[in-house]
Amino acid sequence: MKKYLAIGIFFAAAFSVNAAPHSDKELKVDITRHRAMAAAHEGAAKCLESGKTPEMCEKELQAACKGLAVGKYCGMKHAH
């Protein structure tokens, strides 16, 4: 039980450090990234609407999001 408590405290501390307020410059970068990710996801939706395969659209999404977000789903994964 103490092991899990220690792990929980570690993660709480790690996330509280990341909760520091952003500077104006960092905030502008975040806004730009969110807009780019949104555009990439809109492109993925249009790709699927066009009749292309989900696999093809996923590859296009990955290419559009390269360097923008964490993970291969451009920072967003949803359930099917």
Describe this structure in a few short sentences.
Helices cover 69% and strands 0% of the residues.
Q: Descriptors for this entry?
A:
mainly alpha; 3 helices
Element layout with pairings:
Blueprint: H1 2-18, H2 24-49, H3 54-65
Helix pairs in contact: 2-3
Task: Describe this protein's structure.
- There is one protein chain.
- The protein contains three helices and no strands.
- It is 69% helix and 0% strand.
- The termini are far apart.
- The radius of gyration is 18 Å and the shape is elongated.
- α2 (24-49) packs antiparallel against α3.
- The protein has one domain.
- The protein has 80 residues and is mainly α.
* Alpha plus pi helix count: 3
Largest sheet, if any? none
Would you count the extended β strands for me? 0
Label the overall shape.
Answer: elongated
- Mean pLDDT score, rounded? 80
Strand content: under 5%
Report the span from N to C terminus: 35 Å
Low-confidence stretches: none
The helix content is 55-70%
Query: Which class best fits the helix and strand makeup?
Result: mainly alpha
What is the H/E order? HHH
Cα-atom radius of gyration:
18 Å
Number of folding domains? Answer: 1
